[in-house]
Amino acid sequence: MATGLCSRAWATKSHHFQVRLSHVRVKYLFLTWLAVFVGSWVVYVQYSSYIELCRGRECQRTICDKYRNGVIDGSACSSLCERGTLYFGRCLSSKPNNQVYTGSWGDVDGVIKCQLGDVVHYELGEELEPKKDTMLFDKPTRGTSVEKFKEMVSSHLKAKVGEQANLAGLVTLILSFADGNRDGHVSLAEAKSAWALLQLNEVLLAVVLRGREHTPKLLGFCGDLYVVERVAHAPLYGLGLPWPLEPWVPSGLRHRLDQWFTPSWPRKAKIAIGLLELVEDLFHGPFGSFLVCDMRAGSFGYTDRHDLRLVDGRRVVPEEAFRRAMSLRRCEDDEDCTYGADCRAACDRAERRCAGRASQPNLARACGALKDYVLRGAPALVQEELEKQLYACMALQGSAEHMEMEHALILNNLKTLLWKQISHTKDS
Q1: pLDDT tens-place string over residues 32-47
Q2: Helix, strand or coil for residue 38?
Q3: CA distance linking residue 55 with residue 40, whole number of Å
Q4: Burial zone of 267 (CB within 10 Å; 0-12 exposed, 13-18 middle, 19+ buried)
Q5: Paired residues of 102 in beta bridges
Q6: Per DSSP, what are the bridge partners of residue 348?
Q7: Among residues 119, 141, 173, 391, which is most buried (max CB within 10 A)?
Q8: Residue 348: other Cβ atoms inside 10 A
Q9: 139 alpha carbon, distance to own chain's centre
Q10: What are the residues whose beta carbons fall under 8 Å from the beta carbon of 328, sequence distance 6 or more?
Q11: pLDDT tens track for 380-405
Q12: How far apart are CA 163 and CA 92, in angstroms?
């Protein structure tokens, strides 16, 4: 009898164990299924986003169709559409109509940028973005003479950079840029490509600052596709995370990661000097002044020698264009008078119109972007003075009576202070 009781007890325990095991299996099976479902959904969403953002083949097909039909021409057309020596690499696009890819052109590493959609012509109005036009590469029209094209370019540039700039010299630079095959003549197809590219602020800036070291070299073009020099390190600081991980990293953690992944302080000082020199180039240059309206780290990078480069110039606008556009914009408060991430004007509440002048010059906003970057790890002997000068720089106002004099003084003092700390090091 005792044996029977033991057998029944063992059977009961065994049954309970099997039931529990079955529940555990069902639980883990459900969790596994849930993990697979969520993971598949995330991959699908990210892949759909990638497909929407990265349309390099469509861009290449559109450009090459125009080239083969004789509509456009340029220094990169043959390599892209015939010889196959210009390759699209990794997708870097952040917007579907602005295609950005790493690329290689023979032995040269570059970045390929292409416009998709109807964004072509730039017209001044209440917005600073290019206006949409249904006809791509429709200007200049057949029969347009070189002199007439010069007048078109001159009129367009006058609206952008103002009459005080050296327009004749700038027009000459544009025509030299348009002559893609360097035969001394600008064909109608080359003129159509140059006109489309001239609507893009980044290309205009590359031509204006050609020969300067703080913007990537413009290597070639075909239609409104263009290739620029690739910058080894971008963004300016921080860890470049793969695109699927970007939305999942909390902003606080991302800020700490950005602070950790930076070069040594002497190298940061050299990069900071480069940004100050870029500001100097853009302030009352020979072809007018330009405003950098996105001072975030992603707009900048640096070379292996720690020379700063502007890697995204889409939000660099001529000051004259900014002034005209803002003076036409209606507003209720200062927030309505904003372009890009950083360029702001004051709102005249009585007139309900934005003021034409930017509230702060490039230098003040550059110092704001550099403050945490260059103060972290600074030598103790220079920390206090550097902080003092950076805050004085950040206080610069565009409407100040003696702003230009203060601008020049602060810029010179900052460059001198930083240079003294690194001039004796190998990083200089």
Answers
A1: 655 554 444 444 334 3
A2: helix
A3: 23
A4: middle
A5: 111
A6: 353
A7: 119
A8: 13
A9: 27
A10: 125, 126, 353
A11: 999 999 999 999 999 998 776 678 88
A12: 37
